[in-house]
Amino acid sequence: CCGVDGVPRDGAAGFYLIVLNGARVYSPRGELVVSHNVERDIVHALYRMFVPLQRAASRDDGLMMSVYQTDVSWVSTAVPLEWAEVFEKPPLVCEDIPTGMPVEDVAKVSFYCDNLALLQQHERDVREKFGGRVVTTMSSRRCLDVMAPGVSKGVSLTRVGAVAQFDPATDVIAFGDAMNDEEMLASVAKGCIMENGHERLKEALPHLEVVGSNTVIVVARKLREVFNLD
């Protein structure tokens, strides 16, 4: 997966790209072939919910909201230097919440916070308010993502398989480290969890192999092992 700004438009990549937790899928020619948006009224309500969240958070909590459209991303405050790698290019900054952020073409809304208890309560509040009209997932230990119902990497991988004529359940190996990888890892022939991955992911899929940390080249090593490339 990659961010919204790293998607090739000329097909140079030569492969399908599943991005934004599966809310967008691009063909080998760079064409957008899958697009799922959060409903407009829900997006606006999420912005309104962010205002009391800001009041509840302390300065040390590092609270931030980001919004992802097809071609651009937005943030509620300037991105700290250590977070720059999350974005392919600098996002647009909009501190005028809830009125300044976009409500159309929104693939996902993310909430970043170092206060895990506050973030978990916000996830419960979002689920209670919207029920089945959204799906939530933790894409890292400090990031809560909200998408349209039915959106996941696993679902999009299955759709790609139907077009490209492969079956994820028998033909795919996948690696993941956070809860937004759960459906994908559970649906493929071999799912691998990174050693430094989220504990909730390991608990949800205890039968999967835990490989090395994603800070080293363990993916390449595992692929060589699985496909006997040595």
From TrEMBL:
Cofactor dependence: Mg(2+)
GO molecular function list: hydrolase activity
Keywords noted in UniProt: Hydrolase, Magnesium
Classification via InterPro entries: HAD-like_sf, HAD_sf
Matching PANTHER family: PTHR47267, PYRIDOXAL PHOSPHATE PHOSPHATASE YIGL
Protein name: Haloacid dehalogenase hydrolase, putative
